[in-house]
Amino acid sequence: MQEVPPLYNRGLESERKCDAFFAKMEKSGLALSYNDVRLKTGYSEVLPGDVDVRTRFSRNVSLNIPIVSAPMDTVTEADMAIALAKIGGLGIIHKGLSPEKQFSVVERVKRDLSAFIIDPVCVRADQRVAEVLEMAEKKGYKFLSFPVLDEFGKLIGIVTSGRFEFCPDNSMKISEIMFGEIVSAPCGTTVGQAYEIMMQKRIKILPILSEQKEFKGIYTLSDARRIVKGHSPDYNLSADGTLRVGAAIGVGDDARQRMELLAKAKVDVVAIDTAHGDSRAVIDTVKYCKNHYPQIDVVAGNISEAESAKRLAEAGVDGIKVGQGPGSICTTRIIAGIGCPQVTAVYNCAKALRGSGVPVCADGGIEYSGDITIALSAGADNVMLGKLLSGTTESPGEIIYRHDKKQVKVYRGMGSLGAMVEFTEEWVHWEL
Question: Under a CB-based contact definition with an 8 Å cutoff, are residues 99 and 258 in contact?
Fold first, then answer.
């Protein structure tokens, strides 16, 4: 058993004060949301740099920061999961993807630290410099080094940031500024060997070619150096040294189909993603997953009542998600008329699970960073964010250019009409 991270050790005095506060609220007939609560300050000898916020998302999946991204199609795919894991958090890949596509996204996160990129961004030899620069700016690329392919997809050169910087005319073709002499290595080249070659040849990209000279991918100097020199201590890593990542699943057949593939991708944790987690279908799915894939942690939700938390814990969950309707664009409370104000829901569920070792994720309703502090104070071990992450470069939401030339990103709920129509069409195509 791993050492219990700090956020679990809140202390009896802290729990006593929390219990007294919520008992008073309950006696007054009040349930609280984030806007209803502010924390009092007291004497402290702890400096911000001394604070340790390590915690867990589930029994065996730890976090260096208590942040998890929501399994939404405008929030979490590979880029978000990779970025979060590298700062200590965790991304949960949404289930709007087909099982095969979700598998490939999880696999991409898992192989990120190999430094070998199977599907790098490439440019064509006949493209104009201006066209490539515009593409890089629009997509927000932080790099300007690309393999160059001909019309048949064959590797014929490399173009780097320096070539763009000293290009005299942006109307020139990529073929006119690229390096035509390619330094490459064969399949099977290790990251250590690739690093030595790139350092010796002073190149930033090392293409990997098969015996038949087919282009298979690239090593990059920055990634290879990071691995050879050692990872950042902030990275949230699995025991095998890969980035941690989670994936959302449904219930019944959906769960069985996805679990088979996700196990092959070595996913660290799955989250049963439903609006009502205290149901027979969810509990049966928890038991199926734990019986057939005991190496994968299972988090279930969503719930908002203490008795629901106890039932899920008895079913064998490794973590729970609390939140029915608190999200900024969630319509559960409006359409279904159910739910509980989030701070009270988090407290009640966390209190019910004390001593069980089952972590609590506060999912939804986080509008400001201060809400995270309130959620943790009420008993949550971590928080799940959607809106606060949806406008970042790493989110997969569509970029829209407004009339004032400002960029915004599309953000929608997974129960929205647009999401349901899109994913229904994708699944029909996948089933055919």
Answer: yes
DSSP at 179: B
- Quick one: CA dihedral 149, 150, 154, 157, positive or negative? negative
CA separation for the pair 119, 124 (Å, rounded): 15
Between the two ends of the chain, the Cα-to-Cα distance in Å is 45
Residue type, 218: I
- 63 and 57 Cβ atoms separated by less than 8 Å: yes
Spatial contact of 103 and 270, defined as CB atoms under 8 Å apart: no
Phi, psi of 267 (to 5 degrees): -60, 145
DSSP code at position 271:
E
pLDDT tens per residue, range 415-428: 555 555 555 555 44
- Cα separation, 267 vs 231, in Å, equals 20
Nearest alpha-carbon partner for 296 in 318, 280, 314: 318
Tell me the fold of 116-229.
CBS-domain (3.10.580)
Encoded amino acid at 141, one letter: Y
Distances (CA, A) of 123 to 108, 257, 389: 21, 36, 30
Quickly count: other Cβ atoms within 10 Å of residue 347's Cβ.
26
- 212-239 tens-digit pLDDT: 989 999 998 988 888 888 778 899 999 8
| Domain parsing of the chain, residue ranges | 6-111+242-431, 116-229
CB 267 within 8 A of CB 259: no
Average pLDDT over residues 35-51: 91
CATH class of domain segment(s) 6-111+242-431: alpha beta
> Could you give the CA distance from residue 91 to residue 236 in angstroms, rounded to a whole number?
11
Spatial separation of the C-alpha atoms in residues 378 and 372, rounded to whole Å: 10
Q: What is the largest CA-CA distance in the chain?
A: 78
Please say whether the beta carbons of 127 and 157 come within 8 A: no
Q: Is 65 helix (H, G, I), strand (E, B) or coil?
A: coil
Report how far residue 304's alpha carbon sits from residue 327's, in angstroms, rounded to the nearest whole number.
13
Q: Which of 164, 128, 146 is nearest to 215 (CA)?
A: 146
Please enumerate in sequence order all residues whose Cβ is within 8 A of that of 131, keeping only pairs 6 or more positions apart, or say none. none
| CB-CB contact of 54 with 376 (8 Å) | no
Cis peptide before 170 (omega within 30 of 0): no
Radius of gyration of the chain (CA): 24
**Are the C-beta atoms of residues 305 and 345 closer than 8 Å to each other?**
yes
Whether the model pTM is above 0.85: no
Are the beta carbons of 360 and 319 closer than 8 angstroms?
A: yes
User: Structure tokens of 142?
Assistant: 């932080």
d(CA 290, CA 298): 7
